Amino acid sequence: MKFRLLALSIVYVTATVSTLTGQGVTGQIVGKVFDASGSAVVGAAVRLSSDLTQQERSFPTDSTGSFTFTNLVPGDYSLQVAVPGFKAYSQKAIQVSSEERVDLHEIQLSVGEATTTV
């Protein structure tokens, strides 16, 4: 009797684990950085930090001004964009849910000192 119960438990756990691993539990944040004329800003330093853990990740924009942060644990995040010659950009409390792709669309930077935050 105990052996049968143990065998059924192992089968149940194995089936449950294989089902759970097929489901994603992370989200992502994407966006594009442009200047006032609408041109893509290449190499902008985009920094993302978790509001809960304060853990940070950085990613430079690519040749189209795009950035992508993947494998984000659900929660709230803050984003900062810095480029010499432009005002810094900051956005707080960006909510990411499981399997969600948050698109920040076009972030437009203003010309100015890097010490100024929009």
Question: Can you characterise this structure?
Answer:
Helix content is 17%, strand content 42%. The chain contains 1 helix and 7 strands; from the N terminus they run H-E-E-E-E-E-E-E. The strands form 2 sheets. Strands 3-2-5-6 form a 4-stranded antiparallel beta sheet, with no helix packed on it. The termini are far apart. The model is unreliable at 13-22 (pLDDT under 50).
Rg computed from alpha carbons, rounded to a whole number of angstroms: 21 Å
CATH architecture descriptor text: Sandwich
Largest sheet, in brief, is:
4 strands, antiparallel
Percent of residues in helices:
10-25%
The ordered H/E elements are: HEEEEEEE
Shape: elongated
CATH fold annotation: Immunoglobulin-like
CATH class: Mainly Beta
CATH homologous superfamily classification: Immunoglobulins
Q: Ends: how far apart?
A: 68 Å
As an assembly, this protein is single chain
Query: What structural category arises from helix and sheet content?
Result: alpha+beta
> What spatial order of strands do you see in the largest sheet?
3-2-5-6
Give the tally of structural domains: 1
- Low confidence ranges: 13-22
Number of helices: 1
Give the percentage of residues in beta strands.
35-45%
Strand segment tally: 7
Give average pLDDT, whole number: 84
